[in-house]
Structures are given as C-alpha cells and as structure tokens.
Hints:
Layout: E1 7-15, H1 25-31, E2 35-36, E3 45-49, E4 55-59, E5 64-70, H2 73-90, E6 98-107
Antiparallel strand pairs: 1-5, 1-6, 2-3, 3-4, 4-5
Amino acid sequence: MIPKAIIQNVVSTAQLLDRNSKLDLYNLAEIVKNSKYAPERFSALIIRIQQPIRSTALIFSNGRIVCVGTKSVKDSEIAIGHFVDMISSASSLPIRMRGFKIQISSIK
C-alpha cells in the first residue's frame, strides 16, 4: 500500500508593484509589525504572522512577494492576501497583487 502524501510546505509568489516602482523596505520595517530588514544579510524584508495562517513572507524592493510555510494552496492564498493588506496599509504606493503562482509544494 502506498502511503498518503502530506503537504509540508507551499511556496507562492506574486508581484505587488508596477515595473518602475520600488518599495522602501526600511520604512516598511519601521511600520509593519513582526518584520525584520537586515539588507547586509538578506535583500528582502521578512514578515512573520501567526494569524490568520502561520506563515512567513519575503518582500523584495521590486514588489515581488514570496510566501512560505503554509500547508495548503488555500492557506497560501489567505496568507499572501493578508501580507498584501499589511504592505498596502503601510505603503504610499498603489499595491495590487498580480500573477499569483504556486512555485513549490514540499511533500512528505
């Protein structure tokens, strides 16, 4: 009998900005709760949430968002939507999620 596959991690990506726009990650790190930005170590702003879905987002200055740590595609969609709302309320730039994609699903 073949064991049932269990999804361990869903990774999703999206684009939040138009091509010529850039996010001020220093400013976002000051405003957004549970965020960390250390550009000398890693070029993305890291945001961790526990609710509504436990997950982590990597936000790059070009507007690319990578969401990791969810257990299903639906949870990933919910989490990335929450991150988009957080960034939108903290930024003066127009934020809109485009090109949502599931990149990797780690399966046990």
